[in-house]
Amino acid sequence: MIEIERLSFRYPGAGTGVALPALRIERGARVAIIGPSGAGKTTLLKLIAGILTPGTGTVRVDGITVSALDDDARRNFRISRIGFVFQELELLDYLSVYDNIVHPYRINRVLKLDRQVRDRARALAEHTGLGDKLAALPRELSQGERQRAAVCRALLTEPDLLLADEATGNLDPANKLRIIELLIQAAERNRATLLAVTHDHELLPLFDRVIDIRQPGSPRAE
Ligand SMILES: Nc1ncnc2c1ncn2[C@@H]1O[C@H](COP(=O)(O)OP(=O)(O)OP(=O)(O)O)[C@@H](O)[C@H]1O
């Protein structure tokens, strides 16, 4: 469960940010976050993930007040509980698809890259149609395949909370649908919550709730 109370955030020197009076999202919900460009959708995801710390108010995830954790605890929380898929994929060009997928396990000591994880990485790749691309470099993949690799990486830790920020941007309609369906299936399998920022209104029927972040200072949650 995600609980937000009187949340506000402003970037230093910027006139805009995000403000949300209150919001509750049940565990396992699949939620689309919409709103005009600059309304604060990405900022909201970063506040929930503990990447940014709110100016005022609180964000609680499964009873944990994320902003009250110290830096190490917040990082560990993020690594072990949250899967993030960004629009800018941030796959590492010099690593194979397989090495990209398991990368979080190589750089975070809280994660252990054991045989089970390796098997899970391969199974995820198979399931997403990347089974024969594990040795390829990201630049040798199509855009849809790269995005699927980024989704596999986000799913490998079996996160409780999946945050997708325009994960389907720049993809054709068939690939958009495939990515969202992958995220929804994974969330259902793990009883995880899915929050997906999207500008694609045709994808909204796939979600069970839509939160519309309006102008900063006067947001609307529905
Ligand atoms: N690093 C930053 N420094 C200063 N201001 C920022 C920074 N990142 C975002 N902003 C500003 O904060 C506001 C909210 O940005 P955010 O990226 O959360 O919006 P968004 O709703 O995700 O937009 P979009 O749909 O265009 O991605 C915008 O006015 C933006 O210019």
Polypeptide structure, described:
GO terms for molecular function: ATP binding; ATP hydrolysis activity; transmembrane transporter activity. It comes from Methylococcus capsulatus (strain ATCC 33009 / NCIMB 11132 / Bath). InterPro entries: AAA+_ATPase, ABC_transporter-like_ATP-bd, ABC_transporter-like_CS, ABC_transpr_LolD-like, MacB-like_ATP-bd, P-loop_NTPase. Residues 2-221 form the ABC transporter domain. This is ABC transporter, ATP-binding family protein. The protein has 222 residues and is α/β, with parallel strands linked by helices. It has one domain: P-loop containing nucleotide triphosphate hydrolases (Rossmann fold, 3-Layer(aba) Sandwich), CATH 3.40.50. The protein is 34% helix and 22% strand. It has 6 helices and 9 strands; from the N terminus they run βββαββαβαααβαββ. The protein has helices at 41-49, 71-81, 97-107, 115-127, 143-155, 173-190; strands spanning 2-10, 17-25, 30-34, 56-61, 64-65, 82-85, 161-165, 193-197, 209-212. Strands 6-7-8-3-9 form a 5-stranded parallel sheet, with helices on both faces. Strands 2-1-4-5 form a 4-stranded antiparallel sheet, covered by helices on one side. 38% of the residues are buried. The model is unreliable at 215-222 (pLDDT under 50). It binds adenosine-5'-triphosphate. Adenosine-5'-triphosphate binds next to helix 1.
Distance between the termini: 17 Å
Strand order of the largest sheet: 6-7-8-3-9
CATH class: Alpha Beta
Major sheet: 5 strands, parallel
Keywords: ATP-binding, Nucleotide-binding, Transport
GO molecular function, one term: transmembrane transporter activity
Pfam families: ABC_tran (PF00005)
Protein name: ABC transporter, ATP-binding family protein
